[in-house]
Amino acid sequence: MLKQIGIASLLSLAVVACKATTPPPYEADKAPEDRENYNGAKGLVQQQKDQSYLIDKAQKDSCEKAKLDWAEAQSGQNAAAMGVAQKQIEQYCKE
User: Signal sequence: where (predicted)?
Assistant: First the structure.
């Protein structure tokens, strides 16, 4: 009986110790751009959300840059640059 209590105590202690050292699923205090560590199923879900966000953000940034390039080319009446910028707008701006 004493042996069973000892084994149960050790198992309980091991479970508590494992739970205490489990890292958080992701670095919630950081922006998606700055996160590096993802753990477990919740971390994987957050990593996929972060990747989707970052891809969307990169596309929006590229779209904005293309629009600015087009406006700059238009103000300088540079037809070649306007054509390049227009192609970039068609590629990046999927609104």
Answer: 1-19
